[in-house]
Specification:
This protein is of the alpha/beta class. The protein folds into 2 domains: 53 residues, no CATH class; 51 residues. The protein is 32% helix and 18% strand. The chain has 5 helices and 6 strands, in the order αβαβββαβαβα. The longest helix is centred in the C-terminal third of the chain and has 13 residues. The protein starts with 6 loop residues before the first helix and ends in a 6-residue tail after the last helix. 10% of the residues are buried.
Amino acid sequence: MMNGGRILHHLVRYLSDPNSTVLIIGFQAQGTLGRKLYTGERHVQVLNETIDTKARVVSIGAFSAHADQGMLLDWVASAPKPPKQAFCIHGDEAAAEAFATELTQRGIKARAPRITDVIATDDL
């Protein structure tokens, strides 16, 4: 997600260099620096510094450690006893909702609750 660690220092050094390439090899959640770069933002904040993105930013999904929707549906289908209910809470909201819909269509009660569904705003 590029939100912490030494990657931030590498980005400060190389992101403004048009001869550099930033290779994104995994999922980048909404609101993260990685997602901003992935979607092509040309100016990003890194370590309290505004950096002009001049490096080439490319992405490959081959190294993701997460299963995709099809793999998760296959996994659920292979269960000796299917779950009675599922809460889809990981990933982007749209993807979680789509997965919940697929599960529901396959006879599993499923939903993708938002944090506001679970925690009252007074509790924050």
